[in-house]
């Protein structure tokens, strides 16, 4: 009997233990469910907050786009102004995010607030500056010196025996120059320190290659594009030629990988330019042509656009090519056309503004003269039109979307555009 009672007590103890364990498990499951629901609630709340913030940002972005891109500004305020040493001023060029100022007696590199980063003195009778990426070169046309710079200052000086006709620079500091003598023209190459490379091209007007009119180096310095004039049946014709100085070009005689005569029958090519390492363009008196050197040994004419009217101006950046031509129809005497490097048109716009300079900086086209300016965005909308009470020689984008850097012979100013009109 005592054993039976003892067994009953053990059975009851086991039953009690199971009940306690089941209750504990149930309580744990309830706790996990509560925590899970709480986490889900927090996630939903965060998602709602994110969607609200995203909506506000999107609305703000649309508003900012309209404010900075669609409005027509006619007023401005001066943010800051700095007096500059005029010297024998010749011109300004965009150099990186800053400006290269050059004259007959020296050059200076100015930051976005007009402060001189460096100054270099020299003496030239006819200086002409070119820029590519991190390097600039200033050549004394019909003289014998080329100064080469990076953003820290002078890297070298190239000295020539023959007079300099044209010069171009790559973004790695390699310089190519057309040199002239009485019997022929030559294209010589120089390193960034000014020392000569063991490469040259000889050209004759009556020879197979023709007479070099203009040249352009690709940014990486491995390709040279040239505009040539040559005689054909007693008539002067244009030609575009490509040379490759990379390892792959050694397999081709004279490193000449492509020549284009047929597109310029009875036309002359005045200017050529590499936009990047793949795309380049050539400006003739009756057309603009877009080339690709994606295949290094076989350059391709991607597109040629005939121009019936007289070409007044050509200008370009890495991303765009701009033309201004006569407009024979209607009351507007000029037509502005902008293209991408592959020849696709971005926009076309007629106008009657009397400009003297045209530039592209970022997503804006600048037309300006000595005391006024027009700015178009890449939708062809007139963003700003206004006059200034100070002389103007160069205009570019400022530090913010609605500011411009306006430079003259004696000063540099940053102006903030102000709404004075409405949608265009």
Automatic annotation (TrEMBL):
Keywords of the record: Membrane, Transmembrane, Transmembrane helix
Top-level division of the source organism's lineage: Bacteria
InterPro entries linked: DUF5711 (IPR043765), Quino_amine_DH_bsu (IPR011044)
Sequence intervals crossing the membrane: 47-68
Protein's name according to its UniProt entry: DUF5711 family protein
Species in which this protein is naturally found: Lacrimispora xylanolytica
